[in-house]
């Protein structure tokens, strides 16, 4: 299996082909070996145009969704980012190429441990994995320049809005537990201005301010 070729084709057809233009996002996606983040038995499917199972009912997001959510954050390199829902760690690995520091929270310990191992193996040093309920945010390292939630929420948790810097951006799927809209919120004068990027399907965000 030629993973490099599959990665190039993924970027050409699924990512560029659907209108993702941020050159740094395209570059990051060419740098991260997605095959390391999927389950061993799905390695050959790593670059297909779909989410894949991680076990325990969780999934690694479709590559296009990772690209779109990342592009929404308009990263320049100096940012501190909070991710809620580490899952495989793939989204955090992409962010690690584009921001200064990524804090990622995962409620399932075995997924958090698995992701941490992959970051070590790939020598990704600017991602910190924290176990727990990410709907509370992660006050310790706040405020954040950007927040990305990779599970479907009933609404945007107030805790996350308050841990976002003024002019910061939050990207989060909001809806019911079967389908959501991808929302981008920009914080201006303490309040979010919302843009809707259309329908998407994520596993549910569980926890205090989730389902
Ligand atoms: N970003 C991931 C995909 C995440 S799937 C990737 O790149 O692979 C959603 C993840 O969110 C699951 O691993 C699930 O366990 C986690 N999750 C759900 N609710 C959560 C919560 N309240 N806090 C932290 N993680 C949560």
Radius of gyration: 16 Å
Biggest sheet, strands in spatial order?
Answer: 5-4-3-6-7-8-9
Number of helices: 6
**CATH structural fold name:** Rossmann fold
The CATH superfamily is known as Vaccinia Virus protein VP39
Please give the alpha-carbon distance between the first and last residues: 40 Å
CATH architecture annotation name: 3-Layer(aba) Sandwich
Q: Biggest β-sheet: count, sense, barrel?
A: 7 strands, mixed
Structural class: alpha/beta
Q: What are the secondary-structure elements, in order, as H or E?
A: HHEEHEHEHEEHEEE
pLDDT average, as an integer?
Answer: 97
CATH class: Alpha Beta
* DSSP, total strands: 9
Number of domains: 1
Strand content: 25-35%
- Poorly predicted ranges: none
Catalytic activity: [protein]-L-isoaspartate + S-adenosyl-L-methionine = [protein]-L-isoaspartate alpha-methyl ester + S-adenosyl-L-homocysteine
Pfam families: PCMT
Keywords: Cytoplasm, Methyltransferase, S-adenosyl-L-methionine, Transferase
Active site: 61
Task: Describe the protein's architecture and organization.
With 211 residues, the chain is an alpha/beta fold. The chain has a single domain, classed as Vaccinia Virus protein VP39 (Rossmann fold, 3-Layer(aba) Sandwich), CATH 3.40.50. It contains six helices and nine strands; from the N terminus they run ααββαβαβαββαβββ. The chain has helices spanning 3-15, 23-31, 63-72, 90-98, 109-121, 158-162; strands at 52-55, 58-60, 80-84, 101-106, 127-131, 144-149, 164-175, 180-188, 191-200. The protein has a seven-stranded mixed beta sheet. Strands 1-2 form a two-stranded antiparallel sheet. α2 (23-31) crosses α4 (90-98). The chain is globular and about 50 Å long. Bound molecules: S-adenosyl-L-homocysteine. S-adenosyl-L-homocysteine binds next to β2, α4 and β4.
């Amino acid at each position: 299996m030629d993973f490099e070729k599959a990665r190039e084709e993924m970027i050409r057809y699924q990512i560029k082909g659907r209108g993702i233009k941020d050159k740094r996002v395209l570059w990051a996606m060419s740098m991260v070996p997605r095959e390391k983040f999927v389950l061993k038995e799905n390695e050959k499917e790593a670059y297909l145009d779909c989410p894949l199972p991680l076990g325990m009912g969780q999934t690694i997001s479709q590559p296009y969704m990772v690209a779109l959510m990342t592009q929404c954050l308009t990263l320049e390199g100096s940012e501190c980012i909070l991710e809620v829902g580490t899952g495989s760690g793939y989204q955090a690995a992409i962010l690690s190429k584009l921001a200064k520091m990524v804090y990622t929270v995962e409620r399932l310990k075995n997924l958090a441990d698995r992701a941490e191992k992959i970051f070590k193996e790939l020598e990704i040093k600017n991602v910190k994995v924290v176990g727990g309920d990410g709907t509370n945010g992660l006050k310790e390292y706040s405020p954040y320049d950007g927040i990305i939630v990779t599970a479907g929420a009933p609404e945007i948790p107030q805790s996350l809005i308050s841990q976002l810097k003024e002019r910061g951006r939050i990207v989060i799927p909001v809806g019911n537990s079967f389908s959501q809209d991808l929302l981008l919120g920009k914080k201006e004068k303490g309040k979010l201005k919302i843009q809707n990027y259309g329908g998407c399907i994520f596993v549910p965000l569980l926890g205090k301010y989730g389902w």
